[in-house]
Specification:
Keywords: Signal. There is one protein chain. The chain is an alpha/beta fold. It has two domains: 121 residues; 198 residues, Rossmann fold. It is flat, with a radius of gyration of 27 Å.
Length: 353
C-alpha cells in the first residue's frame, strides 16, 4: 500500500473542499524575518551604488553595451528598487515612519558588497535627515539570459490546404541581485545585511528571431519589474507587512438548506448573518452537516480577526465531527496565531496611532 505524504493529503482535501465551496480573501500582518530594535522608529532610504570614479562609470557603460541592457539601466533599476523599499515600508506596514528623503551615496565598486559605512558617517546622515536609521541599497546587479526554441504553426492557403510555417520562441530570464544593509543611528552599526536574488521570465514569439525579440519588453522595463520585487522583499524582511490569504468555506450540505442560505449571506458580505445561520446548522445531528457548519464558523471567526475563536470552532469540526479539511485548517490557524503573537511583539514599541 502506498503512503500518501501530508502535502498530497492537504492538496486532496483542498480540491475536495473547493468542489463545493466559495472563498473569501483576508488581509493579515505577517511578521518580519529580522526584528529591528525598539529604538529604531524612523528610517530614510539611500542608494549607494552610484559609481565614485570615472573608471567605474566607464565599466558600467561598457557592461551595459556588452550585455545589451543599455547604459544606465542598472542605475535606473537601483533607483526603482530604493523607491519601492521606501514605499513598501511606508504603505505596507506601520512599523516605521519613513521620511521622503532618498539619499544618493557614492561608493559602487567592482566587488559586490562594499565595506559597511563608517559609524560616524551613519550618525551624521541620520542627524541630518532626523531619523533613527538608514535602509541602504549597497549592491545591485542584473543579468539577462536568452534562449531560443524553434517551432511551427499551421496556416491554410486560399485553397484550404494546410502549410507549416517556421516560428521562433524567445524566452528571457531577467535576474537581479541586490544587497541591502540597515544601519542604526544609536551606534552607527549594521543591524541587518541581506543578499537577495529575484528573477522574472518573459517570452515572445514570431516568425523570425528578430520578430520574437520585438515581442519582449525592453530590458530596462524588465529590470525595473524585478527590482520592484527586490525592494518589496527587503521591506518585508525588516518590517511586519500585510499579506493576502484565501480561505474556502462550504456552500452546501446534503439535506440541509441552511448551509446554502448562509453561504449566500457570506458571499454578499453579511458574515454576521451567515454566522447566525451556521450556528443553527451546527445543531444538526448529522456529523457531516455539523462538521461543515463548524468549519464555516471557524472561517467566519478568522474573517473577524478572532483567531482563538476560529481555532475552537475548527477543533469541533475536526475532532467532534471528524472533518478532514478542518484538521488541515486547524494547523494553518495555529501557525497564524503564533505569527500574530510574533507580530504583536515586533510592533509593541510602535506608538499608538
Amino acid at each position: 500500500m502506498h503512503k500518501l505524504y501530508p502535502s498530497v493529503l492537504f492538496l486532496f482535501a483542498a480540491l475536495l473542499l473547493a468542489s463545493c465551496a466559495s472563498s473569501v480573501h483576508i488581509r493579515a500582518l505577517a511578521p518580519a524575518a529580522v526584528p529591528m530594535p525598539a529604538n529604531l522608529q524612523s528610517v530614510a532610504t539611500a542608494n549607494r551604488i552610484i559609481p565614485n570614479s570615472r573608471r567605474e562609470k566607464f565599466f558600467d557603460v561598457l557592461e551595459g553595451a556588452f550585455t545589451g541592457e543599455g547604459p544606465g539601466v542598472d542605475r535606473a533599476g537601483a533607483d526603482e528598487c530604493v523607491n519601492v523599499v521606501g514605499q513598501a515600508l511606508a504603505n505596507n506596514s506601520y512599523r516605521f515612519k519613513v521620511t521622503q528623503a532618498q539619499l544618493q551615496l557614492q561608493g559602487r565598486g567592482r566587488e559586490f558588497f562594499l565595506p559597511p559605512l563608517e559609524p560616524r558617517y551613519i550618525q551624521s546622515l541620520c542627524r541630518r535627515t532626523q531619523v533613527d536609521g538608514l535602509v541602504v541599497l549597497e549592491a545591485f546587479d542584473s543579468d539577462m539570459a536568452l534562449s531560443r526554441t524553434n517551432g511551427t504553426r499551421t496556416v491554410k492557403d486560399k485553397e484550404g490546404k494546410e502549410h507549416q510555417i517556421p516560428t521562433v520562441r524567445v524566452d528571457m530570464v531577467m535576474k537581479v541581485v541586490t544587497g541591502f544593509r540597515t544601519y542604526g543611528a544609536a551606534q552607527g552599526f549594521v543591524l541587518d545585511q541581506a543578499r537577495q536574488e529575484e528573477q522574472l521570465a518573459f517570452s515572445g514569439e514570431g516568425d523570425t528571431y528578430g520578430a520574437a525579440l520585438r515581442q519582449l519588453p525592453p530590458p530596462e522595463v524588465c529590470i525595473r519589474r524585478v527590482a520592484q520585487r527586490a525592494g518589496d522583499g527587503y521591506a518585508r524582511r525588516i518590517a511586519p507587512s500585510y499579506v493576502d490569504l484565501n480561505r474556502n468555506f462550504f456552500t452546501t450540505a446534503k439535506k440541509d438548506a441552511l448551509m446554502k442560505q448562509a453561504a449566500t449571506r457570506a458571499e454578499a458580505g453579511d458574515w454576521a448573518g451567515a454566522e447566525t445561520i451556521w450556528q443553527q446548522a451546527a445543531r444538526n445531528l448529522h456529523p457531516k452537516i455539523a462538521g461543515r457548519a463548524f468549519y464555516n464558523l471557524a472561517v467566519a471567526s478568522e474573517v473577524r480577526g478572532d483567531l482563538p475563536g476560529a481555532i475552537e470552532w475548527a477543533k469541533k469540526s475536526a475532532f467532534t465531527c471528524n472533518n478532514g479539511q478542518a484538521k488541515s485548517y486547524l494547523r494553518v490557524l495555529n501557525d497564524r496565531l503564533v505569527a500574530q503573537n510574533v507580530v504583536q511583539e515586533q510592533l509593541k514599541s510602535v506608538p499608538t496611532h
